[in-house]
Amino acid sequence: MGSSASKAAKHYPKPTNTARVPWTTGRTSAPPPQTQSASKRGAEIDADAGDPQVAANLARLGVARVEHEHVQPVKPSARADQVVQSRIRVEQQETGIPAQALTDLLTEAKSLTNAAQLDALAAKYGVNADTFRDISRHFNTPSVSPATITTVLDDDGNKTEMAPALWLERKL
After folding, report:
1. What is the pLDDT of residues 60-70, one digit of tens each?
2. Can you give the residue ranges of every domain in the chain?
């Protein structure tokens, strides 16, 4: 049952003795020309280094100064500059009122009946009247009717007053 003599022997691939023949082509390519590295000093460089006339001319020329006349300095586009400037102006201006003051303003505006009252209310809060007309046309605050307030007791005996919010249209 366990005799190894009765089992088939494992066969592994055997290496071949034939040498690989490289592919041959009809034409042979010439080796690329050898370029001399700039870091190696050759005879020409040594000859120039020893020439006093070349050294004197280089000293007379001095350090190279490159002036790019055709290149203009990079400037931000006019549009991008305008955007940045307008953002700076907006940040510097006092443009808003606190959220609670706006809520109070919108709540008081619900009871106004004419444009003169609206102008007076806008002046009271220091808001541009035309801007306030536009805002109050689209925004409002929730209102609560005293008749709809209900008191709810929880399991611990705590009272909670609840009332549904109402949407009141402006009279103006």
Report:
1. 888 887 777 77
2. 99-172
